[in-house]
Design goal:
Length: about 60
């Protein structure tokens, strides 16, 4: 988590705004997940061709109507 998000979280928590502090964490989680999907990061070292194909399919942008 970047220092900016960490400081934002700490500020909200210190002020007793726990719902807003948790919102900051959720925003970080969402951005992290999006970045991982966009960059096709995989944590598995020995993934099969089938798994790679599925990951490629899931990470494609949606088709235009």
């Amino acid at each position: 988590m970047s220092d900016t998000y960490l400081q934002h979280f700490e500020l909200e928590a210190r002020q007793g705004k726990l719902d807003r502090a948790l919102s900051v964490l959720e925003r970080v989680r969402g951005r992290t997940a999006a970045a991982l999907l966009e960059n096709k990061v995989s944590f598995a070292k020995d993934e099969s061709a089938d798994v790679r194909a599925l990951e490629d399919e899931v990470s494609k942008p949606p088709a235009s109507p």
